[in-house]
Amino acid sequence: MSPVEPGILPLVEALNATGLVRTFSSCEGHFGLHEQTLVDRSYAYVRFVPAEGILPEQVEMAVGIWLITYKKKHGLMPVRVIGYKLFTPVDDQIDLTFVLELQPFNRFDLPDTKRDDVNRAVKSLVALTSGR
Q1: What topology does CATH give the domain 9-129?
Q2: Model confidence pLDDT, tens digit, residues 30-65
Q3: Do the Cβ atoms of 79 and 31 come closer than 8 Å?
Q4: Domain ranges of the chain
C-alpha cells in the first residue's frame, strides 16, 4: 500500500478520527504541467466509506454539515470544496463511495499558488471535521 501524500494526510487522519468514515484513497493534488497525466490530477480528494456500524445517511449528514460550514467560512475561492457519492459498477453490484474534492477555483493560478490554497483548505477542513 502506498503511503498517504503529506499534503492530504492531515485531512485523511481527521476524517478517520471522526469515527464516521474509513478512508481508502486520496490525492494531495498535482498542479504542475509536468505532473499531469491522462487522468486529471489538478485537484485534491479523499474517498471514503461509512465506518463499521455507521449508516450512509449519517455520513451524508456529516458531509453536508462540513460543506456548508466550509462554504459559509470561505466561500468558493480560492478553493471550492465539493462532496458527492460515487456509484461504481463492480461485477454485478454497485459500489458506493463518498468523495470530498478540493478544487482550486482559478485554473490559471500558478501551481505554487494552487498548492498553498489547497493546503490552507485542508487545514480548515481538518479544523471543522474535528470540531475546532
Answers
A1: Gyrase A; domain 2 (3.30.1360)
A2: 999 888 787 888 999 999 999 999 999 999 999 999
A3: no
A4: 9-129
